[in-house]
Amino acid sequence: CILKTSSYPAVSETSKVSISILTKRCEVILGQFLADENDLGDRPLPSVRIEETVCVLQELARLILDIETANALNIPLYLKDALRENQSHGRAHLLSLLPTFSELVVSREPRVRELVQVLLRLISSELGLQRLT
Fold first, then answer.
1. Is the backbone of residue 88 left (phi > 0), alpha (psi -120 to 50) or beta?
2. Tens digit of pLDDT for each residue in 77-96?
3. PANTHER family, alphabetically (predicted)?
C-alpha cells in the first residue's frame, strides 16, 4: 500500500523533509562501511557493520516514493526530467545515492555487492534504461 501524501498535507510536508534526512543518513552509514572496509584492509569487518549496511540497502530497495516526495529530492533537474519522461518516480531516492553505490560495487562483502547490483538495476529501470542485447 502506498500512501498518497497529497491527500494529507501534513504528511506530504513531513515526507518532503524526511526524505532528505533519510538519504543523508543512509549516505553516512554506507560511507562509514566504505571507510571501515578500507581501514581494516584484509581483516574482517564487524558483523554489526555488515548487518547494518545490508539492512540499509534492503530498505532502500523496498522504499517507494510518491511524486511529491520524489520532487523534493535534491537531484539534478535533468534527472527529474528523465524520471518524468519515463513516468517514473518511485525510486528516485536511489539516484541521490548513486555515487555511493558506485563505490560499493567493489566491496569485499558479497551480500553488499549483490544488493548494490539490485539497486543499480532498479536505477536503470527507473530511468528507462535496458540492456542493448
1. beta
2. 888 888 888 888 899 999 99
3. ARM REPEAT SUPERFAMILY PROTEIN, NUMOD3 MOTIF FAMILY PROTEIN, EXPRESSED
Instruction: Look at residue 8 in the predicted model and tell me its pLDDT.
Output: 64
Q: For 62, which DSSP code?
A: H
The domain spans of the chain are 12-127
pTM of the model: 0.86
Site of grid cell 536503470: 124
Those residues of the chain that have pLDDT short of 50 are 1-3
Amino acid at 23: T
> By CB neighbour count within 10 A (0-12 exposed, 13-18 middle, 19+ buried), where does 20 fall?
middle
Largest CA distance in the chain: 51
Q: How far apart are CA 27 and CA 42, in angstroms?
A: 24
